[in-house]
Amino acid sequence: MAMSHGFVVWFTGLSGAGKSTIANALQSELTRRGRHSELLDGDEVRTHLSKGLGFSKDDRDTNIRRIGYVARLVARSGGVAITAAISPYREVRDEVRSQMPGFVEVFVRAPLDTLVERDTKGLYRKAIAGEIANFTGVSDPYEEPLHPEVVCDTSKESVAESVAKVVDRLERLGHLPRQARERLPAGEELNELRLLARNLPHLQVGQRELADVFMLAAGALTPVDAFVGREDYESIVARGRLANGAPFTIPIVLRTEDAPTAGRLGLFIGDRPVAILDVAEAYEADRPAEALAVYGTEDEAHPGVRVLKGSGRWAVAGEVVALARPSSGFPEFDLTPRQVREVKAQRGWQTMVGFQTRNPVHRAHEYLQKVALESIDGLLLHPLVGETKSDDIPAAVRMRCYEELLAGYFPSDRVLLATNPAWMRYAGPKEAVFHAIVRRNYGCTHFIVGRDHAGVGSYYDTYAAHRVFDGYRADELGIEILRFEHTFYCEACGGMASTRTCPHPKEMHKTLSGTAVRKLLDEGQDLPPEFTRPEVARVLLDAAQEEKEEATA
Fold first, then answer.
1. Please, where in the chain does CATH 3.40.50.620 lie?
2. According to CATH, what is the number of the domain 331-420+426-552?
3. Residues of the chain with CATH 3.40.50.300
4. CA distances from 520 to 14, 74, 285, 395, 534 (A)
5. Residues 167-193 pLDDT 10s
6. d(C-alpha 515, C-alpha 323), whole Å
7. Distances, alpha carbon 262 to alpha carbons 105, 230, 233, 329, in Å
8. Of 91, 151, 281, 425, which residue is least crowded by CB atoms under 10 Å?
9. What is the dihedral sign for C-alpha 478, 414, 384, 486?
């Protein structure tokens, strides 16, 4: 995994303001997110690194320079340096800032009377009485930061609120990946919003739009939490990033044939309200440029290009409230990102690998998953159940296959089956990055990418879905990519293998194309055990037979 970029969080403020308390809480949050940090507390530094220094201005500046030097080393090695020292003088703080990138200054303040009340040792009272010299904030100056990145007022905020402020700023600055935040109304609030939607101008949408709305509202597409505006749209198309530089590869927009004239719209499927959209802007999308950037082609035989070119020419941006949820037909598996993260925490998994599929899991998939599980705590089997190509196996059939496979061949405490309500775009490498970002928001620390992830036909080069990740640092994606080679059953090896482990010629490798699988199913023939488990094969054969009977009924 590529080394995360380091940074420094520099807490400054008067004694008793709460620097150390917030710094310790921040360190715990960073540990939870898998980031290594070192806390340089002012009192500890003076005991060890700066032992012997007094409290003159020169000695104080020397102390801060020493803290800055160590912080710089920590950040340079990819860690997070958290400092919690009064650092009263602006000039030396600015000097330290100038010596390192990724410097985030947090001013922790509280009124003097609050500091006096908190001071159990009575130091402030003694300083006010003239019994202690050179006491910062009383008999020695404290120069407040002019432009700190964060200001925490601990007389008004809880520790949790202050930490949330700092974390939010670190996310916005790109030092931490944004975490998913759920915005799904329920109960009476949901009923009131549905009533409101009926009194707004209506816009008819389809299942694809509903999937996007729900993914936005559930936090599955963070850092994108609204239909994107022109600036982000153009940046995504041009360079696979949002305007602020955060990785994002597929524009999430609401497309219409005509530009909306209302500032707020009710989105409907038939007579059912599914969302409320607050329109921020509408702009003409460059569909040819988008097709080439996202799909690598303008060929309308490509299913993603066909959908794009058949959509409206206007892109509508704005925040949405979801009033409905897509359903897979298996509600017990329709878990939101928050719910998946909660299960992960309940099971005590520190690491979780995500697996994307729109097909039944065959032996090659199973092999990849189990290789990953040798070193990772849990597997999120996360099949996409939104709209796919007409010749893909229906979601209901696939879900039965997954249940059969997991029941017979995986330890139940190591795997979580949950649905992904997104619709399939078949965007190859761009969708591989998109899928990784989604799984990060579901709590995955790792994501499996095969040689032709989200591919269709011959539009993408072999392993393009691997190479695309070379353009993104692991720390900015917030998830580690497991790039797996082509896998197969090898007759000579007597089991599953990959091009990295098997020395035998291709003639020994047993694989089946999708076309060959469909042909066997149409003919009512068993699928070979080297391709899939017999229980899965039986579900597929039964479903094919049912489809045939319905077609001839």
1. 331-420+426-552
2. 3.40.50.620
3. 7-172
4. 75, 59, 43, 20, 14
5. 999 988 889 877 777 889 999 999 999
6. 39
7. 42, 18, 21, 35
8. 91
9. positive
Say yes or no to pLDDT of 1 above 60.
no
Residue range(s) in the chain whose domain bears CATH number 3.10.400.10: 187-322
pLDDT in tens, 282-295: 999 999 999 999 99
User: Catalytic annotation on 458?
Assistant: no
- Confirm if 180 and 441 have CB atoms less than 8 A apart: yes
pLDDT at 4: 63
Give the active site residue among 15, 37, 50, 87.
Answer: 87
**Which residues does 342 contact at the CB level (< 8 Å), separation at least 6?**
none
Q: DSSP of 229-248, one letter per residue?
A: -HHHHHHHHHHSB-TTS-B-
Q: Give the global pTM.
A: 0.76
* CATH architecture group of domain 187-322: Roll (3.10)
What is the model's pLDDT at position 3?
A: 47
pLDDT of 553 over the 70 cut: no
Question: E strands within 72-131?
Answer: 80-84, 103-109
Topology of 7-172 in CATH? Rossmann fold (3.40.50)
